Amino acid sequence: MKYVFPDNFLWGGATAANQIEGAYLADGKGLSTADMLPNGIFGDRVERKEGDHALKDLAIDFYHRYPEDIALFAEMGFKCLRISIAWTRIFPMGDEDIPNEAGLAFYDRVLDEMAKYGIEPLVTLSHYEMPYGLVTRYGGWADRATIDCFERYARTVFERYRHKVKYWLTFNEINCALHAPFNGIGLSAQSSKQDIYQAIHHQLVASARAVRACHELIPGARIGNMIIGALMYPLSSRPADVLKSQWKNREWLYFSDVQARGAYPAYMGRLFRELGVTLDITPQDRIDLGHTVDFISFSYYMTGCVTTDEQLNQQARGNILSMVPNPHLPSSEWGWQIDPIGLRIILNELYDRYQKPLFVVENGLGAKDIIDKEGAINDDYRISYLNDHLAQIGEALQDGVEVMGYTSWGPIDLISASTAQMSKRYGFIYVDRDDAGKGSLARRRKKSFYWYADIIKSNGAHLK
Ligand code: BG6
Question: What is the average pLDDT across 74-101?
Fold first, then answer.
């Protein structure tokens, strides 16, 4: 046997409410920031007009089709399913005193369905969405009032689902706020660095308060953070490039440094001085930040390079997270560079840094799929991508890294976050819908469906 995964390894898939549920105004749900980003997360808000349509409004209609979808996940042998709760289903405007019962009841139904098959839920409190009402009334995370609103929401769902959910995550890819401010913190991309870092600070405090509340309300539960794992290599061995990559990595690691260690790392002092940022951190904030996460979770899709060569840096503009392409790596159809070994590197780095268990809660290949004449979807490219990344997790386990589980992104095709497309597919399960919104929404098993079922059944022993 090549790789040995722990017996309790949580194999599964990961989703987000706004990318699968649809029903964007059903049963009292309020508008979210995700609803105001119909073209993808990197833009600024688009005002929605009466009668307009966005692909996400219906998404893949998980809101009504969840029994069928969960049955398909169970057929693959999922031990775990990552879902997120749409905050706006529970508190439509964000600052109500009383939650929306219809929203709470929906997630009861979903969680009960998962329990039927023994699928362990991993629940993200906020996956790239917040109530739009908090943006219009308070300016999003710019205002401390939003921390209290989030804590009220977190306490509400902890109390409600305390017997159903053991694993929680606070904010999805909290460290993306610097790159997509409206999506992450409800601020316009034109906001000053001062305002952006202050809003991020409020979100970090809110995350820590959710950790405290979870520990108080659900003994035995485990709550983690969630960051984008954006490993940056130096483009050359020139010390200046190596130094620059160290600082570039700190840009995304400082979030988990705060969440895992309970305080800002020393290097942020220099960064804030150079940017002219002075954070308002109250004594109570410092105490709150001391509530650190139980485990570190992250998404992993690609790596990139960093250089001090300004000409080459121009190439990086417009790429996600401004990465200079690595000449040694292939790319996906969307230009994301594929680097399985980088996953082993990042697992080792994070484990060395925090000595906390790690959970890979997103990874996968966005690709166009073709249905052949027999009706089959032979997505060997996806199988090979996933196999190679899982094999590197197997290696990291042998390195001694503690990995709790792996939930591949989008086990069923869903709406892409960055480009709001349906045609960027990640699933083991195909959904009949195109970028224009046409299609029956029927579900169909791809070749990777059977492959993943076999990998789970063999607990990783069949990985190549
Ligand atoms: C992560 C997000 O950044 O990447 C997901 O947490 C997202 O919401 C995933 O869908 C893949 O990105 P994309 O743009 O291909 O959907």
Answer: 98
pLDDT reported for residue 40: 93
Q: What mean pLDDT is reported for the chain?
A: 96
Q: Are 142 and 148 in contact (CB under 8 A)?
A: no
Strand segments (E) across 345-441? 358-362, 403-409, 429-431
Residue 279 has pLDDT above 70, yes or no: yes
Report, in angstroms and rounded to the nearest whole number, the Rg of the chain calculated over CA atoms. Answer: 21
Say whether 68 is catalytic. Answer: no
This prediction has a pTM of: 0.98
- CA-closest candidate to residue 224, choices 178, 172, 179, 185: 172
Separation of CA 1 and ligand 1 centre (Å):
33
In angstroms, the Cα distances linking 19 to 136, 195, 357, 439, 448 are 23, 28, 28, 17, 21
Q: How far apart are CA 322 and CA 306, in angstroms?
A: 9
Torsion of CA 447, 453, 457, 462, to 10 degrees: 30
Is the distance from the beta carbon of residue 140 to the nearest atom of ligand 1 less than 6 Å?
Answer: no
C-beta 129 within 6 A of ligand 1 = no
pLDDT at 320: 58
- Cβ of residue 427 lying under 6 Å from some atom of ligand 1: no
Distance of CA 366 from the midpoint of ligand 1 (Å): 9
Residue 200 confidence (pLDDT) above 80:
yes
Whether 173 sits among the annotated catalytic residues: the reply is yes
Amino acid at 164: K
Catalytic residue among 113, 120, 129, 362: 362
Q: Which of 44 and 232 is assigned the larger pLDDT?
A: 232
Class of domain 10-457 (CATH, top level): alpha beta
The answer, yes or no, to whether residue 318 has pLDDT greater than 60, is no
User: Taking the domains of the chain in order of start, what are their residue ranges?
Assistant: 10-457
Which residue's entry shows tokens 């409020």? 202
Torsion of CA 200, 190, 49, 86, to 10 degrees: -10
244 touches 315 (CB < 8 A): no
